[in-house]
Structure formats: C-alpha cells, structure tokens
Amino acid sequence: MKKLIVDLSELEFAFESSSPLNIFYLDTETGKIIPIGEDGQFLYQQMNDMYYRSELERIDWEAAFASGRVQDWQRELLLEIDQIETDVEGRFERVPIETSSGAYADMQTFIDTIADPSLQIRLRDATSGRGAFRAFKNILLDYPEERERWFQYKHELLVERMRNWLESIEIEVEE
C-alpha cells in the first residue's frame, strides 16, 4: 500500500458532490483532489476539437493559449484535465459517484435504527414514493435529535466508503 497525505475533508466533499457534471479525481502522487466541473469539461472538449494535432498526439496548448480563447485562470485547469485525460500510468483515480439507490438504501437502514415506531412508519411511508429524499429530510426537521443522528450516521457511512475506496486503490492515508 502506498502512503499518501490526503485532505479527508476535501475527499469527503468530493464523495458527496461527485456526479457526471462534477467529476473529482485523486492525484495518487500528491494527494490533491482535483475538481472538474461541467464548464471545464466542455472547454476541454472544445480545445481538443480545435487544437488536437495528430502528429503531436496531443492538444497543441501553445496554439490554444495563443488564440485568446482561453482566459489565464482557465489554463491551469485545462492542463490538469489534459494531464488526467492523457494519464496512462494510472496516476489519477476518479472519485466514485454515489448512486441514488445507494443513498436510498442508507435512508432505509437509518430508519431501522429509529426507536420511535410512529416515526419509523412516517418515514417509511414518506420514502416509498416520488420525492423520497425531500420527504425524509422534511420529516426530520421536526425531530432535531434524529436529524442530527442522521447526519452523523451518513457521515460515518461516507467515511467508511472513502476508506474502502482508498484501500481498493491501495492508498493508505497518512495521518
């Protein structure tokens, strides 16, 4: 296992926020979490379409930057994306996207831990149809202790998933 310093709060944010439109990568050399939003993905694709040179087998960044189409603040992001896209060594690992079915299962297992049978019934009924997540959260607003317990429960599950993922890619976090 490789030891790496990783900001676990940044990784936690990446786990919670990762989606097809907001992608996060872990740089397994530096421990840095790299966010790539929809705008960055779109801009990179534009640069690839306009400035990819087959003879170079890469994007001609010099020409792209000289064109004036790229703002100074976008350069670092584009070069990071390019580094990720052209990575053949496996340096960059994509942070997994949590599925809605996984989040739904978390809610259901939490409901099983609630001592109040009437609250359990309310939550089960509320989460059996459309808008399950919103209904679940709205009901918990009336139960601040259970709501706080839910956030702690969810946090602990997330930390466990993060550690399992890091272990699966053979990374041990240095404390």
Structure notes:
This protein has two domains: 19-94, no CATH class; 100-173, no CATH class. 58% of the residues lie in helices and 13% in strands. It has helices at 8-17, 38-51, 61-66, 72-85, 100-112, 117-126, 132-140, 144-168, and strands spanning 2-4, 23-27, 33-36, 52-53, 58-59, 92-94, 171-173. The strands form three sheets. A three-stranded antiparallel sheet has the order 3-2-6, with helices on both faces. A two-stranded parallel sheet has the order 1-7. It is elongated, with a radius of gyration of 21 Å. It starts with a strand and ends with a strand. The mean pLDDT is 93.
Descriptive terms for the model:
two-stranded parallel ribbon; 175 residues; alpha+beta; 3-stranded antiparallel sheet; 7 strands
